[in-house]
Design goal:
- The structure is a single chain.
- The chain has about 575 residues and is mostly helical.
- It is built from 27 helices and 7 strands.
- A 4-stranded mixed sheet has the order 3-2-1-7.
Length: about 575
């Protein structure tokens, strides 16, 4: 009797043979399950054995990978209950070649092909219903499934678009501007003007929080037309929203003059109306323009002087807008040279104005400078002052960074338990802050660094990876996590995973040549070489990293790399 096998890979992994589900504990080997998944998502459910070896064991020599493949085949056959479940003919592996094999991915692909070719909205909607979730979501960081997962999801979104199912499309991608525009037009056609306006605000918030950009010119023009249809004139908040959106469109086109003009107009309107959030957005746009011109110090100092004289709410909004730039100032290409003088200048301004939040920010800058310079006592003093001032001012963002940096001081001193305790305090503050996309991933990076052992470090890596897969995260702010995650994965000999983090770090670092990021990447590459047993190359890379850290005035990192170079020979 011909066997029947049903394989589910959309929304999760599951196998049933002749109607009986294969229990989870039947997979005695993780790679046995991976082999079945690999064959299930491959066209024709067939694959050359060497290709499977390259995908599942890319870092092993051919003999070792071949031995592992034989074990995986053995355990997969046992789990599926038949020696025919995985066939090996010549050098080709096949999944249940003599059975009736039903795979949900294959059914979805066939239906999607037919529906998209027909262009029929109802047929596209029916095909979209077959998509029960992302491809193998529990294997999110297995590189052999990433490309296929992206292609399948893209086809699903194309079906939703062809079906005009805009609401469901936004459930999967809340940043889809075409979908938001379509819903705005639907609301407007039905006389629901307020709903159309709210739809734009949802889009603007999603783009800002998840991608860090503004709606495009077409969407902004539609919003302006919706505003124009109202009996009442636009509110100040709505006018500021349009002004900022157009300013960010100008920024995207690198029209710095127009972006600055609109940012200043939005800032003035927000100040007059006491709109803290909008003031912060205007300050962010002004900071972007100033950074592009090489005048960020001057711009921030002007805003700092102005902000310390205003209400705490407005002051905090401006400081949040600049905190990420301050961090980039310390960790960017030019390093932290000049940070102490700049911090003392800001501290004098804040002290004279009696600004608690301003003092918190200045002490934070001074504490970070001392930490990077290896002056741990000075760092502890300034960071403690920053934390006290930030708590008094109710500035969650500054509290989070002060706790994070204080935790790093304790790690450098070898007191990991105290560091973890501080990070436990920092995480809820980071999540509650106005710049969550910048701060939460930073705490995850320090959690990896502060972990007491490899198991804890890998657990922290997984938590950070889940965040990166589910939320928008500021790229520069993720660098600490990327490098620490790569180092932890290299120590665990999970070189494929480590290389994926290194590749992302290299992409981000490539946008800003030089500086401590480049040095950190040399160090992580050395860790990878050492994990691969290439000790001579590892020692050379550690020394290169040490030299770069020395040039940047980072003695703790320099010393660590020199010690690693000596132990690698």
């Amino acid at each position: 009797m011909q066997a029947t096998c049903r394989v589910r890979v959309l929304g999760g992994f599951g196998v049933a043979v002749d109607g009986r589900p294969v229990p989870t504990d039947a997979w005695r080997s993780r790679r046995a399950a991976d082999l079945v998944k690999l064959l299930a998502i491959e066209a024709g459910h067939r694959m050359h054995r060497e290709q499977a070896m390259d995908l599942l064991w890319p870092d092993l020599p051919a003999d070792a990978a071949g031995a592992n493949l034989r074990k995986a085949v053995h355990y997969a056959r046992r789990a599926l209950g038949s020696p025919d479940a995985i066939a090996l003919t010549g050098h080709v592996l096949a999944l249940w070649p003599g059975a009736v094999l039903d795979c949900d991915l294959e059914r979805f692909d066939r239906a999607a092909d037919a529906a998209l070719a027909s262009g029929d909205a109802a047929e596209c909607a029916a095909a979209a219903d077959l998509y029960t979730g992302d491809l193998l979501p529990d294997d999110r960081y297995e590189w052999w499934v990433e490309e296929r997962r992206t292609k399948v999801r893209t086809r699903y979104l194309a079906l939703l678009r062809a079906a005009g199912d805009w609401a469901r499309l936004l459930e999967w991608d809340e940043t889809d501007e075409e979908a938001h525009r379509a819903l705005m037009r639907q609301h407007l056609a039905a006389g629901r003007r307020r709903e159309a306006l709210r739809q734009f605000e949802r889009l603007r918030r999603a783009l800002r929080e998840r991608i860090g950009v503004s709606p495009d010119a077409e969407t902004v023009a539609l919003y302006e037309s919706v505003l124009a249809e109202g009996v009442e004139p636009p509110s100040v908040a709505q006018t500021v929203a349009v002004t900022l959106a157009n300013g960010l469109v100008a920024w995207g086109r690198r029209n710095l003059v127009e972006a600055e003009r609109l940012a200043k107009r939005a800032r003035a309107l927000a100040l007059d109306a006491n709109l803290g959030h909008e003031l912060g957005e205007a300050s962010t746009l002004l900071a972007l323009v100033a950074y592009a011109r090489g005048t960020w110090h001057e711009q921030f100092r002007r805003e700092f002087v102005d902000s310390v004289r205003r209400s705490t709410e407005l002051e905090s909004a401006v400081f949040d807008a600049h905190l990420c730039f301050q961090e980039f100032y310390l960790y960017g290409p030019e390093g932290h040279e000049g940070a102490e003088a700049f911090g003392r200048d800001l501290l004098g301004i804040a002290t004279e104005a009696g600004s608690t939040a301003g003092c918190a920010l200045a002490h934070l800058l001074l504490g970070e400078f001392a930490l990077l310079s290896g002056k741990l006592e000075d760092a502890s003093t300034h960071l403690a002052r920053s934390l006290v001032e930030a708590e008094q001012a109710g500035c969650a963002s500054a509290q989070s960074i002060a706790l994070e940096r204080a935790a790093e001081v304790f790690v450098r001193r070898g007191d990991r338990a105290r560091a973890v305790a501080l990070l436990d305090r920092a995480m809820p503050l980071a999540r509650a802050s106005g710049i969550r996309s910048h701060l939460v991933i930073r705490v995850h990076g320090l959690r990896v660094l502060a972990a007491g052992g490899l198991v804890d470090a890998l657990s922290a890596v997984r938590e950070g990876e889940r965040l990166l897969s589910s939320e928008h995260v500021c790229d520069p702010c993720s660098m600490g996590f990327r490098t620490e995650a790569a180092r932890a994965c290299a120590r665990a000999n999970d070189l494929g995973r480590a290389r994926r983090h290194v590749a992302e770090a290299e992409r981000i670092s490539g946008l800003w040549q030089g500086g401590p990021w480049t040095a950190a990447l040399w160090e992580v590459r050395a860790e990878l070489r050492r994990a691969a047993g290439q000790t001579t190359q590892a020692a050379a890379l550690f020394l290169e990293a040490a030299e770069q850290f020395a040039d940047l005035g980072r003695p703790l990192e320099e010393r660590r790399c020199r010690v690693a170079a000596g132990s690698s020979v």
